[in-house]
Amino acid sequence: MSKKNVIAQSSVIDEAFKNNPHFVDVYFTEYVVNSYSAITYVVPGDELLFIEDADLLDDEKIELREHGYTATVKATETGFFVPALSLSAQIFSKKEIRTCVLGWIFEHPIDAVDYLIGTPKVEKKTDPFTKINSLEFEWDGLLQCNGRFQISDNLFIKLDYIDNICVISFFTSADQYFDGLDCRDYSEPSYTLSANDTISILFDDDTILDFKSIKKKSFCCVFHQEDFDAFTQKKIEAVRITFAKSDIDALSMEFANCFFGVYSQLALMLYIKKFLETIVDVHPNYILPDRAIGQLNNNEQGYCFVYLMQDTTNSYYKIGISNNPDYRERTLQSEKPTIEMIACKKYPTRKIAASIESALHTAYSQQRLRGEWFNLDEADVAAIIETLK
Prior knowledge:
Blueprint: E1 4-5, H1 11-17, E2 26-31, E3 40-42, E4 47-56, E5 62-64, E6 70-74, E7 79-83, E8 90-93, H2 94-99, E9 103-106, H3 109-117, E10 120-126, E11 133-139, E12 149-152, E13 155-162, E14 165-172, E15 177-178, E16 181-182, E17 198-203, E18 208-212, E19 219-222, H4 225-233, E20 236-242, E21 251-254, H5 264-282, E22 304-311, E23 316-322, H6 325-335, E24 339-347, H7 350-363, E25 368-370, E26 373-374, H8 378-387
Antiparallel strand pairs: 1-9, 2-4, 2-8, 3-7, 4-5, 4-6, 7-9, 10-11, 11-13, 12-13, 13-14, 14-19, 15-16, 17-18, 17-20, 20-21, 22-23, 22-24, 23-26, 25-26
Helix pairs in contact: 3-5, 4-5
C-alpha cells in the first residue's frame, strides 16, 4: 500500500515559516484537524498543524513564549489525512520539524483505515500447564489497546484464537486496563460483565445476534461463520447489554464512531477480515463453526459426544468430549492433518459425556502422555471402540 507524505521535507513547512523568520530551535505543535477522528477529509488550504514558539526548560517542560511566533501548516492536496503523531502536542527542534513525518494524505478512506489498522503479526503459544494452543496477535498499525476495538461508548470487542477456536471477547469500560493504565470511568455505574449476561447486536437489516459467554471469569464467546458474515457485510446500528442481575437495567447504546470517526464501520470490517485471513494463513484448513450447531460451552444441557482420535504419525490417541466432534476433528487437523476420528458416541447431556470421558481417562491413566493424549495398545483401542459403539 502506498501512502502520500504531504508534510515531511515539504515546502509546506517553509511556507509556514516565511512570515515568522525568528522562530527559536524548539517548537510546540498540535493538530488542528478534527481531533475526534484519526482520519479527516481535507482539501488544499485546510489547516492541519499549529506551531508556537516555545522554550524547552531544564526539566523538559514546555514554556510558551509570551510574545512568540506562530505558524499554521496547511494541506496541499485533497484526500484523507492521517496524523503521524499519536499525541496532540510534541516538541521538535528546527531541524526535526523540517524533516520528520507529521502525517499522510490518502486518496481513498479504505487506504487510510488499512494503514491505521496495520497487519497483524502472529506467534504460536502453548500453555505449559494446560497444553492449550493459541495464537498471539500483535498489530503493527495504530490500532489502539492491543487489538481491542470499540463498538459503542461502553463496549469493546477483541478477537483471539485459543485452543484451535476463534473466539470473540467483550469488555465494558468497567473492565478496561490498557498497558497498566486504568481506563475505568468511576463516575459511571460499574457495568462489569458476568458469565450470565447477554450481549445483543442489532444490524442495519434488523437482524440481531445474541452472545452468551462460555467462560465464568471473562465474557468470551465462540466466533461463528454467521457472526463473521454479519460483522463484515452489515452495519451495526445498536448494542444492548442485558444483565443477569435483576437490579441492573439493560444498557442500550448506539454504535460509536470512535477513533476512526465516520469510517469506524469500515475499520471494524477490515479488522475482522484481517484477523481471519491471518488465522487461515497459519491454519489453511480452518473453518468457522456454524451457529446452528450451538456454542461450544460448558453447560450440562443438550447432547454431547465422547470421541477417540488418533495421530497416525506417532500412533498416539486422544480421548475427549465435544458438542461437535466433526468440527473438533477439523480444527485439530488444521494443526496436524494426520489426525483421524476412530470412534465417537453421542450422549444426552454433557454431564454424562464428561463422566464417561473421566472414567476412560482414569482407566488408562498409566498410558497418559499429557492432557487428553494417551499411548494405547491394540487391546486398549479395541476396548474403547467397544465402549463407544
